[in-house]
Design goal:
The longest helix is centred in the middle third of the chain and has 21 residues. The strands form 7 sheets. A 5-stranded antiparallel β-sheet has the order 5-6-7-8-9, with helices on one face. Strands 10-17-22-21 form a 4-stranded antiparallel β-sheet, with no helix packed on it. A 4-stranded antiparallel β-sheet has the order 13-14-15-16, with no helix packed on it. It is globular, with a radius of gyration of 24 Å. The relative contact order is 0.09. Helix content is 33%, strand content 20%. The chain is an alpha+beta fold and 596 residues long.
């Protein structure tokens, strides 16, 4: 258990402004004095869209035609029916109360599980899918689009029920509606029902923006983008209030880029998937800005998003689009414009690189280019050079690359709250295969599994005395944030590239790790001291029949050898858990080495 001193230090690290924003919002809602509790509105009436008269520039996605798709992997057959907007498909049979005031509904409970399961179908990914299918010649797609939206508005009265609980969820819906109208060519002459739907979403988002900003995460970027896009649309249609909302949205998009994205491109959430979410958010805002020929964003915003694009491009395997599963992964994929796999990050990187760098991130032709066609973004002639080894020291990521492999080492540089106790974790990719890997997130609701996946034992590092590297203060908060000592920057030593980092924790334990990436090997050297009883080194491995022989583990041509200057008390192959997608858990081999 963390002591009071730890909580005070953590509060100071979070920052008084953020704490004040979050605390005052929660208190105002609880006391009933927040204006968001007094919102009322009439249900919008369709039709919302007209059939498309324009052909398809790229293949249409298959999602949502015959089955609902949750978190990029779970398919639930529709059988010609509309989704139940209040059902969590992972807790089938338990329905959320659609008439309840949203502020009375918990995020997590034993009956409905994680509220994200309810929210997923109401993110309106399907509006984009139906727009593509309509343009591809599906005569029934527009009818489905209007029917589903009419059912959603009827089943979700304004500001009642779980789907109105979160301003960010309302923002994601609004952005998807904007992009759908753009794809169908109906931005300039929209249906009245659609604009009414946009208005009631803006009224939900605006009063709680301060709370979103206090989170210092993607809530603020999403809600700022929604205000900018929705406000600009209303303004173009002659609504004077729209100009004010768009101005507020633009201001906070600029401020959030400056505050949350480091100059080296690291995003505040230290998460590969949330990084994709913020890139897609700014890409949608930029596409929208261009459509209305609005003033350009500042050079600083463009510079920060360009750096963030480079950060993610450096992490991505060009062969498959996959990237390390580091940090929280809640299943978000904001712009599902292609049938590429959920784990393929290339569409987001390609779009952001084109918009903010005026060059392609990936040279070859592929489905990851379809987003450019659907959003009518011209393909640039310039092509970025292949990513090389880079140090993102502002956020604590070192990437070593050669022609055959990539090693990523995570070390603690926490200006924002860390989501996982993963100091000195190492990911290894060989020929596009993720040989040494992160466990992922699984879900946020079940605290037992949440603690497992975010804890030190789920990362390729060393755990001391069976405790996490930092004390857990809450579901999404660790205390006594680690800070790395001086690092040994990436260097070329003979045929190998090297990097090193170290930390001391609150208990006086020290861990120093040096990695060396050659063409055919990765060498990891750990020096540890200060622990009381035991230290356990874990390597989470790619699936396969690994064989342990002496101090080596083998899988095909892969070999892991362990050497230690102190006696090894235990070395065994275990079965661990991993989650490559939200709400999906599988088994994976894990090598554990214990020193007394």
């Amino acid at each position: 258990m963390a002591g009071m001193a730890s909580k005070v230090r953590t509060a100071l690290a979070l920052g008084p402004k953020s704490i004040a924003r979050v605390g005052s919002y929660r208190l105002a809602v609880k006391l009933g004095i927040s204006p968001v509790r007094r919102l009322t509105a009439e249900k919008p009436q369709g039709p919302f869209f007209r059939p498309s008269e324009v052909g398809a520039p790229a293949p249409a996605v298959s999602a949502w035609r015959h089955s609902a798709r949750y978190f990029g992997w779970f398919e639930k057959p529709l059988n010609g029916q509309i989704p139940n907007w209040h059902e969590n498909p992972f807790f089938s049979g338990h329905m959320a109360d659609a008439s309840a005031d949203w502020w009375t509904i918990p995020d997590f409970d034993a009956v409905r599980g994680d509220i994200k399961g309810i929210w997923e179908a109401s993110r309106f990914d399907w509006t984009i899918a139906f727009a593509e299918q309509s343009r591809a010649g599906d005569a029934e797609a527009c009818q489905r689009l209007n029917t589903w939206l009419a059912d959603w508005t009827e089943s979700n009265p304004p500001y009642k029920g779980a789907n109105w609980k979160c301003g960010q969820e309302a923002s994601v819906r609004l952005m998807h509606l904007c992009i759908t109208a753009l794809m169908l060519g109906q931005v300039n002459m929209p249906e009245k029902g659609l604009i009414d739907l946009i208005r009631i979403h803006l009224r939900r988002i605006a009063p709680t923006l301060s709370y979103a900003l206090g989170q210092n995460n993607n809530h603020g970027t999403s809600e700022a983008a929604a205000l900018f896009m929705g406000g600009a649309w209303l303004s173009a249609l002659g609504d004077k209030q729209g100009a004010r909302l768009a101005s507020d949205g633009r201001k906070w998009l600029e401020e959030r880029a400056r505050v949350l994205i480091e100059t080296d491109g690291t995003f505040s959430q230290y998460s590969v998937n949330y990084h994709r979410a913020v890139l897609d958010t700014y890409s949608m805002a930029e596409v929208w800005r261009r459509h209305f020929d609005l003033p350009e964003f500042s050079g600083e915003l463009v510079s920060r998003i360009s750096a963030a694009t480079n950060w993610l491009r450096t992490m991505v395997m060009a062969q498959t689009g996959e990237a390390p599963n580091m940090g929280h992964n809640d299943g978000t994929r904001l712009l599902a414009l292609t049938d590429t796999d959920y784990s393929d990050f290339r569409p987001a990187v390609q779009l952001a690189s084109t918009l903010f760098d005026q060059r392609l991130a990936f040279e070859s032709d592929g489905a990851f280019n379809h987003a450019l066609a659907w959003l009518n973004v011209a393909t640039p002639k310039n092509i970025a050079s292949a990513p090389a080894s880079q140090l993102f020291d502002k956020g604590g990521f070192s990437v070593l690359r050669n022609s055959n492999a990539m090693a990523v080492m995570r070390y603690p540089r926490f200006r924002f709250r860390p989501a996982q106790a993963d100091a000195l974790h190492v990911d290894l990719w060989v020929g596009g295969r993720n040989v040494l890997r992160d466990a992922g997130s699984y879900n946020y609701a079940d605290m037992r599994w949440h603690a497992y996946f975010t804890g030190t034992g789920s990362h390729n590092t060393i755990q001391f005395d069976e405790r996490d590297q930092m004390p857990r203060l809450g579901r999404f908060l660790f205390g006594d944030w680690l800070q790395a000592g001086p690092v040994d920057p990436p260097a070329q030593t003979g045929d190998a590239q090297t990097f090193g980092a170290r930390y001391h924790d609150r208990c006086g334990t020290s861990h120093q790790r040096q990695i060396s990436l050659g063409q055919n090997s990765l060498t990891v050297c750990d020096e540890v001291s200060g622990f009381s009883n035991k230290a356990v080194l874990r390597w989470r491995l790619c699936p396969g029949d690994w064989i342990l022989q002496g101090n080596q583990a083998h899988l095909g041509g892969d070999t892991i050898s362990i050497e230690a200057s102190a006696p090894i008390k235990r070395m065994e192959m275990l079965v661990g858990k991993e989650s490559r997608c939200y709400m999906r858990m599988t088994e994976t081999p894990m090598l554990a080495v214990e020193l007394a």
